[in-house]
Amino acid sequence: MPTALLATAVICAALLPAVLPHVRHRIQEYRDEHARRTAAEHRRRQLVHATDWAITMAIEKCWERTVDDWRAPRIMLVSVADVVRRAEDDFNLQISREEAHALLMDRLAFRGHLQTTLVTDDHDQQEGTT
Description:
Structural class: mainly alpha
Helix content: 55-70%
Shape: rod-shaped
Distance between the termini: 80 Å
Largest sheet: 2 strands, parallel
Number of strands: 4
Number of helices: 3
Radius of gyration: 27 Å
């Protein structure tokens, strides 16, 4: 029995150098993919925070305006430029207007502000203003 164990140990020791580079490569691939996913999630969270702050500031300005007729709807002015500016100033992130527009519409829907009177500055060339 000890001879069989010794033979198995010798065979494993002989195979280890052949398998070790492949295992190291797989571990490195996993670490690289994990770092990429973590960085993408971190960027997405920062963009969501920038968008939420742009919306919050628009809501604050909306309530600061004096209204003559209390029945008139309050108009919230939020722009894609506000989202881009917040992302650049607060998080030093470069973001395209299309990505900012998609984030703005998503966060407005999430926060329930798409039903209110909303004015944005983004427009589609084919369909006019949105």
